[in-house]
Amino acid sequence: MTEYVYNDNDSTMPALSAKFASRVGDSSGHHEEAFHSMLELLAHAISAGAMIDVGCGMGRTTAACAGIVNEVVALEPDEARCNYTRDLVRDKPNATVLQQTTQQFIAENPGKQFDLVVLGMVIQHLPTHLCDAVLADLATLCKPGGLTVVATTHALEKARCFTHQHVTEGRLLSQISREAFDAYAADTDHQDKGLPVRRFSRSEFESVIPDAFEIVHWGQYSYFRPEHIEHFAWLHSVEPHELANTGNSQYLVLRRKRS
Ligand SMILES: C[S@@+](CC[C@H](N)C(=O)[O-])C[C@H]1O[C@@H](n2cnc3c(N)ncnc32)[C@H](O)[C@@H]1O
Question: What pTM did the predictor assign?
Fold first, then answer.
């Protein structure tokens, strides 16, 4: 059990999602389709093994993979979201949902390792020291030679920043220092500007990956729909044309080194 509270109920997600497009097929599908179809492919590749979904939220990855993978463990520190996911997969005996952090799970299950480790859209909300610690835990949880997938925000190199979910100004006026972000992200009882949001550039994202991993693949997804590109250009404080081929999210597929 943890004291952590996630200060959002995802009620604004449908309106936000409508601003993004998939570039799979005719773009009429879900804007995260490229990421989720890649995850399902990896789940099929290790279907006889075990996977862990760290920070499972409302359980979409957990539920999808529980129908594919022999053993699925999901960790979620927020009580309400953990219970939601537990209920979602109650008819899947191969899925275990725990209200735990990686630190707690590792302490209670020393030596337990997984063929596939997933950390989807979590690290951008964490204080920077906790981001580094959770990523290090992924290396502990992943079998040597196994795969780990991490997804997060994506911004142009010049637009990477620390900010908040609810902003009324573009990046140049709404970005905060790393120290201010760390303090805000650590205090989940007083997040009056919504979730803390760290917009990672690709190189910054790659730089926080522990040495225990080799980077196998980078991808981006959730492209800005043309009719909303001006808004996101304002939000990121860049020119609209610079976002034409930039996904709002990115992921890395990592292989755990054998030694
Ligand atoms: C944006 S949601 C993503 C949920 C899910 N992975 C998905 O892709 O739908 C971020 C989740 O990370 C969880 N979280 C926050 N701190 C965490 C931590 N230290 N370790 C793991 N998960 C954490 C939050 O409670 C929240 O459910």
Answer: 0.92
